[in-house]
Amino acid sequence: MSKPPRREAESPAAVALVELRGIEKVYPGGAKVSAVRGVDLKIERGEFSALAGPSGSGKSTLLNLIGTLDRPTRGRLLHDGRDVTDLSPDALADFRLGALGFVFQAYNLIPVLSALENVEYPLVLRGVGAEERRAAAHDALRRVGLEAQAHRRPDLLSGGQQQRVAVARAIVHRPPLVLADEPTANLDSKTGAALLDLMEELNAEHGITFLFSSHDPAVLARARRVVHLQDGELRGEEAKGA
User: Fold this and answer.
1) Is the Cβ–Cβ distance between 46 and 207 less than 8 Å?
2) CA quadruple 96, 59, 177, 144: dihedral positive or negative?
3) Rounded to the nearest 5 degrees, what angle is found at the Cα of 169, between the Cα atoms of 166 and 170?
4) Domain 13-239, CATH 3.40.50.300 — does that match?
5) Contact indicator for 40, 63 with CB cutoff of 8 Å
6) What is the CA radius of gyration of the chain?
7) Are 181 and 149 a contacting pair, CB within 8 Å?
8) Residues 13-26: pLDDT tens digits?
């Protein structure tokens, strides 16, 4: 006898990976600055998307809010249906360690650690045993094509190699979502294209959702959904076929 269909409310696919409800961010001071204004947005699982806009449009602020690196002044932020808006700093740190990966424009690698140790670091913070985390870090470096450079420090790697180490660090714990802020900004066009190839492969083969903040035409051309911001507000979006 066939099983009854599951109700939509019970299906994980019915819950957005990320949902922003009326998110606002106001920076205090003599002249208050509204960096993000009343944003409603959903990011679904498996997306390869970008936040686009000119400098000062609020795209990096919005990415930081989604990544819980900053708190909204108003509104609610949900990850996988869980409201994380009011979590304590310690709870947010634990949440980020398990649910998010970050790729920063400046790489943010620890200079005194090798590539392998940099990639291992999130697993160290999660209390993963030495043997397990070393194997996971080697696997992540292999996936980004840098296993042969595992024992080199960042100062002995090119900019493109450092960014690949940053990607390996972001994916080593297999997070559902990777947030990348201007990931190609410091790379030449060839190296940037190779990095985007890698991210598309990780998206397609491992189901990792990617959300970029970028004004690089090469990034926006690859994104299958581009959300446009201006003056902290959503100004439309465009979706392209996979």
Assistant:
1) yes
2) negative
3) 85
4) yes
5) no
6) 18
7) no
8) 578 999 999 999 99
Contact 177, 147 (CB under 8 A): no
Sign of CA pseudo-dihedral 229, 233, 238, 239:
positive
- Each residue of 55-87: pLDDT tens digit? 889 999 999 999 999 999 999 999 999 999 999
Joined tokens for residue 66 = 């989604």
Domain residue spans in the chain?
Answer: 13-239
82-103 exposure pattern, b = at least 16 Cβ within 10 A, e = fewer:
eebbebeeeebeeebbebbbbb
Show the tokens assigned to 6. 């599951």
Give the separation between CA 8 and CA 131, rounded to whole angstroms.
41
Q: Which residues pair with 48 in a beta bridge?
A: 210
Sole residue written with tokens 């959903």: 42
Mean pLDDT of the chain: 90
Q: pLDDT for 96-145, tens place per residue?
A: 999 999 998 888 999 999 999 999 999 999 999 999 999 999 999 998 98
The amino acid sitting at 1 is M
Cα distance between the two ends of the chain: 36
Kindly give the residue spans of alpha helices, DSSP state H, lying in 29-114.
59-66, 89-99
Which are the contacts of 234, defined by CB distance < 8 A and separation ≥ 6?
A: 39, 40, 41, 227, 228
